[in-house]
Amino acid sequence: LSAPSLEDVIASTDALSQEIRDRLSDELGYTWVQITDASTRRERNGYGGESLLQQYFSPTWRTEQPLHDYDEKLRAMSIIDEVLAQDGAYYALYPLNVPDGSVDESVLESLYGSADPREQSLWEYGSSRIDASFAGPEPTLFYATITDLANDASGDARAREEASRVGDDPLEGLDLTFISRQLLSEADRESFEAGS
User: How far apart are CA 88 and CA 73, in angstroms?
Assistant: First the structure.
């Protein structure tokens, strides 16, 4: 009950997403389009039904400009990391698509199109909110992903993007998304405390 409410998380992640977009726009000239709406869904309660706790998926924002240059991609991720550090509530941004010896290269190839970041059609960096208590709900996750169709030799990335495209949304660019779990809405607090 002492954890941030659903409404608190929506407000804080929306504000942080805006800060990140503003910095990237100021420094790299990006413009943005929202490609998905925010959504919530009830968590399962362990007994086959729904609990009062909810999952929250933030709106996904995508640059209207594609990112093909390797150094530009690194710079964009560095700017995002600076904003997260300035916010102080998130761990450093971590590359999930970069070989580090813990994941077989064939796995990276299947997930990102190549084991070499210079040739990948998908970059994926992540972070999570710092939870010093380790007793609350799962921490909010943040993902910054880049779809680069210039590196899409198989056509799989293009097919995936075309299948989920809405209207004239760009097929490639940098996406920003937050995902939070086990959140209690302020409207459900009384029922939660009562155990219903």
Answer: 23
Name residue 141's beta-bridge partners. 128, 179
pLDDT tens figures, 47-105: 777 777 889 999 999 999 999 999 999 999 999 999 999 999 999 999 999 988 778 88
Measured N-to-C along each axis, helices 6-28 and 70-87 cross at an angle, to the nearest 10 degrees, of: 140
DSSP codes joined into one string, 80-133:
HHHHHHHH-SBPPPEESSS--SSS-HHHHHHHHS-SSGGG-SEEEEEEEB--SS
Q: How far apart are CA 44 and CA 72, in angstroms?
A: 41
Give residue 75's identity as a one-letter amino acid code. R
Distance of alpha carbon 18 from alpha carbon 11, whole angstroms: 11
Among 12, 32, 10, 14, residue whose Cα is nearest residue 175: 32
Diameter over CA atoms, the chain:
56
Report in angstroms the alpha-carbon separations of 157 from 35, 42, 73, 151.
16, 30, 18, 9
Q: What is the pTM of this model?
A: 0.89
